Amino acid sequence: MLRDLATRHIPITTLFPQPVSREEYARYELTADQIASFEEQGYVAGIRILDDRQTEALRTELRELSDPAHPAHELFYEFHSNESADPSRILFHALGAWRIAPAFHDLLWHPAVTIPSAQLLGGAVRFWHDQIFSKPAHHGGVVAWHQDYSYWTRTQPMAHLTCWIGLDDSMRENGCVHYVPGSHRWGLLPKPALAGDVDAIAAALTSEQRDRFKPVAIELQAGEASFHHPLMLHGSYDNHTDRPRRAAVVNVCRDGVRSWSTEPLLAGIPAIPSGQPIAGMFFPLLYDPRLLG
Known about the structure:
The chain is an alpha+beta fold and 293 residues long. It contains six helices and 14 strands.
């Protein structure tokens, strides 16, 4: 029988040490200026999340997990060796690594993820789902301009947050993420194919939004992260370099967000009745600042 790490709602390794004092908690907190920037622009970037040892542990697991013959493959919610239909523009994308690999499991409880998330969400942090991405050297594909919440409307209210963590240096040349500052205030836009036409969203924008569509490249060193709002319009371009662009993504929500669907929220898991709070084995509570006293 396969071991499903979703049954474990605490860290199972020592890779991401937990704070034991208020001073240690404080070192992970965002500054007031960073929080203000997030509220104004819809994102905050350049946050150091991982050290070299943690980064390499996640890279190693990603290499193993990207093999469709991995013995725990069936535990993924989604697995796309190439999300694109074009074999010359590969976008590897999978959901559910936390159920399979110890480092990806424990990343959810990393205080460098959970503590800023609680600040930006304004409350306790519950896990929504994870993602792993890889754009291979020379022919890594695009991610279309999109808003994460356009894929998540099966939940209410919209109290979500994404932490995007670079496992390689992520630069313009190898397909880093781009954000459109302020677009988190544009309302919900149509959902595009994730690896389809990068500019498909343009047809849904108003003339004013098109005038304000001024993307910013979010260049990150390996181990750095950005946090973005669920309505932040973002996407990325091809990787034509001789190095990969790999990333881990942790998507969280504020505790109390509810199911808004009669169907399972993720493939292969039990449904949560519409109107009921998201909770249970697959949606653990990661951090509650109220428990600090």
